[in-house]
Amino acid sequence: MTQMNSSTGTDRFDVVVVGGGVLGTSVAARLAATSASVCVLEAASDVCEGASKGNAGTACSYYGPPGTLETELINRSYPHWEELCGRLGVAYRRGGAIMLALDDAEAETLGHTLAELDEAGVRGEMKTPAEVAQLEPLANMATVAGLWMPDEGVIDPMALTVAYANLAVTNGAQLRLNAPVTTIRRLDDGSMELATPQGTVRGRYVVNAAGVRAGDVSELAGGEPLRSWPRKGQYAVLDRRFAEQLQRTVFCTHSPTTKGINVVPTTHGSALLGPTAQDLEDAGDTSTDRDQVEALIESARRLVPSITRDVVIKTFAANRPASEEPHRLRFDQTVANLLHVTNRSAGVSVSPAAGAYALDLLRDAGLDAEDRPDAVRALPSTPRLRTATDLNTLFAQDPLYAQVVCACESVSAAEINRALTSPVPACSLDGVRKRTGAMYGRCQGSLCAAGISFLTALHTNTGPRDVKQTAHGTVGQ
Amino acid sequence: MTARAADAAYVVVGAGPSGLGCASELLHAGPVTVIDRIPVTGGTAGWENPLIKDLTRDVVSRGAHFALGQTAVRYDGATLTVASPTGFQPVATRHLVFAGGLRPGTPADLHIDGYRPAGVVPATVAEHLLRTGVQLWTHAVILGNGPWARPVAELCRKLGTRVTVVADLADVPDWSQWADKRIDATARVRVAGRDRISGVELTTADGTTSLTSCDALVLAADPRPNRNVVGALTEDDPNVLFHQPTQPTSPRLRYDAAARATRSWLQTIGGPS
Ligand SMILES: Cc1cc2nc3c(=O)[nH]c(=O)nc-3n(C[C@H](O)[C@H](O)[C@H](O)COP(=O)(O)OP(=O)(O)OC[C@H]3O[C@@H](n4cnc5c(N)ncnc54)[C@H](O)[C@@H]3O)c2cc1C
Questions:
Q1: Out of 3.40.190.10, 3.30.9.10, 3.30.460.10, 3.40.50.300, which CATH number does the structure's domain A97-150+229-321 have?
Q2: pTM for the model
Q3: A377 CA from centroid of ligand 1 (Å)
Q4: Residues 204-243 of A with CB under 8 A from B
Q5: What is the CA(A97)–ligand 1 centre distance, in A?
Q6: ipTM of the assembly?
Q7: Is A237 left (phi over 0), alpha (psi -120 to 50) or beta?
Q8: How far apart are CA A399 and CA A7, in angstroms?
Q9: Which of A9, A78, A202, B114 could form a disulfide with B191 if both were Cys (CB 3.0 to 4.6 A apart)?
Q10: Do A395 and B88 touch (CB under 8 A)?
């Protein structure tokens, strides 16, 4: 049903999604499996450049409080991660989490959290210090109690976002990169016209998935003032030589104001310490500072005392879209066909159900979107050298698997080439990192970034100077 | 020389001056296989270096087996998995010597604050890129005086890029031959610029901050051992020797130091096997 209106040079779609983060791409992937036509407009030169690339990748079973739409969407999502990630070729592990109480006051808080879990129908169980030590031998021995949450998991949030985007494009969605929406015009027929440097598109419905900039998009469309502000989170990444011993996610007891610093083993075999929480004015501020990083390592050591500064291989920061309304999946109160889809702190965890829920809302509002039986549901899988056990089979599939490019993280030229040629291909070194984990290890690309830069230049038809290092800047000046 | 990696009593990973020194000594104790990612010996000293040619010839004549252009990937204490253009090969060995060289400190190692924009480049990467002969930057700040600092500075200047070195160069009297400007190492370094680096803010121990504008920051400080064979990352297995010293720096002295270290390691593990 993609309608092209060549006379005006404007492409028309049933739905235009603004923002290529985990929420925008999830909605687009769901819509693309229907008869509705969909276009995603992303300001950056790649998908997954906002909060979706800077988070811990916890795929929660519970975030709280009970009774909210967010909790409901998490409930609808977490039982299905294995099936979804199997289809999308995304790393996921349901390793469970243990929330530690280090004194009696914290133990009491844990009791409240357990009651909330029960109310939300999520599995949770109090554990004695001895049981805690068995579940996670690296956890602080001086715990008073632990709350065990077996359905907590971890996911590769960047691979997930890219996979949603790949699936959407495979099923016919159009993706325009480098396409920040600069104006939105409401037309007489009720549809909206969105102008970007990559041309103008028209949509009968607009999905506002612009993350921390959702307020700007709403304003452009003449919608409600959505007050939101960036809340910076800094993280420290731990070397796999330490992190691979971690069995579980270790949460601190929530305080009324923050969920605090946690220790999260990643699907890559590293671990993340964080996040800090710092309210900002400037959404582009993703700087890190040493004092905050030192402080967060100290906090993390309350949970896992054997963490030391020398296993930190990287620090980074990202901004959550903080707001009085931390989760938003509803139509605008003034512009009837503007659907807001934003989430502050659990966007990854709600994303599968959020796509489906957004489709339901759009259908209820009159969108004609039949599920297409021929829609592609699974992406071609890319086995990972790092986790492969049968290396000979891998080699038989593609001899480039034996060309190890990133040795720290065991990433081969086969994986990198696929990242550079997928439906939504990497166009920068950082794009390769997001898709493959190359350069993510302890040497941070010291030994492989030159090689990856050559491969990227080859596929993007650029050279050593103008090959992109990040989504925003080139290697040379 | 790029034959299939052979099982051996001793396997050396890294064919730079250190690896060759280790191999030379190990040959007194038993069969030796030397593996390197790049298809030549010499490592950072370069394969054309006459000393490297001599040392290579020597160990080859004494029976060392070379598997070049091959990458050691995993080690489980008995088998080293090696990736090569013909596939993955298990190489049985009870003794692994890792001489994989050095890499520069990363932003996290160096506690660098601020942003992660384009234009912040490890010195090892800068060296590769500059060798393509393209002027990549107009003003590069080189942080630190690791072994890559001078070669990178020289390549930069040859291509017309101005170079400022931030390092303690008190015992490097000839720095002005390869850099335009020097600034003493500071307590803190912060990267400014969001999409692309615009400068580095340097803060001294007494709290004074100054901004040096630049369009590249080359990380050349704090050389560290490069470790990347899964299963052989930490020094807890007595049958694995890591030999990756930061000093000495000359190839000849590195070779000698490696031979000495290998000799004493052989004694601790009970001599020839
Ligand atoms: C520190 C931190 C830790 C977190 N930890 C977790 C966690 O463990 N688990 C979890 O589930 N969630 C976590 N979250 C939350 C999660 O990351 C977010 O909820 C989620 O990424 C939001 O996705 P999004 O698609 O709405 O936003 P984003 O990923 O920010 O995407 C928005 C996109 O919109 C684009 N855009 C903006 N304006 C325009 C415009 N005018 N035109 C075109 N495009 C535009 C942006 O370029 C961006 O790509 C964390 C977040 C942070 C910051």
A1: 3.30.9.10
A2: 0.95
A3: 24
A4: 236-237, 241
A5: 23
A6: 0.94
A7: beta
A8: 49
A9: B114
A10: yes
